[in-house]
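Justification of resources, computational component.

The compute hours requested in this renewal are based largely on the per-chain cost of generating structure records like the one below. Each record pairs the submitted sequence with a full structure-token output. That output is archived, and it is also reused by downstream analysis tasks.
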Amino acid sequence: MNVIALSGSTVGSKTRTAVEAAASRLKNANPQHDVTVMDLAELQIAFSDGRDYRDYGGDTSRLAEAIMAADALIIGTPVFQASIPGTLKNVFDLLPVNAFRDKTVSIIVTAGSAKHYLVAEQQLKPILSYMKAQIVPTYVFIEEKDFIRDEIINDDIHFRLDRLAEDTLLFAEAYAKIREEKDAAYDF
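The structure output for this chain reads:
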């Protein structure tokens, strides 16, 4: 299984820390799967201008192709001004509307306070649903107080990241099996 763990911001380090922690758990528990961390802070992503994702070059093409080839994604996002960052929205805008069809997507949100807990529910999940993602129902929300020096210090967050990594694979495997059985029902 091919899994992309995407850190969806060009600034800060907490989201990257959380995404890497989830990806590491996934890799360690399931070394047979290909898990790749991609950080928007390390990529030069073009601004979406309506072209087909295959018409872009460089990092933009590499990111879009990786997402399109993935079986599952872990998307990490910080909350800026009570919303997802524009850089992450730009990634969604680069992709076709069915980009996440038959893909399992799980979510990690980092925020300065508990007041932003529903950003994933009200903003991120509707976009992912519109793009046909199979969304893992629970997500990991991590507050500023759960970090010290770019390290997660809350044991509950560690347990929830373990569960998120496990659920991401379980959901992806279950959906793949359902699709196989459905495809096998046709004689052609």
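The radius of gyration is 16 Å. DSSP finds five helices and eight strands in the chain.
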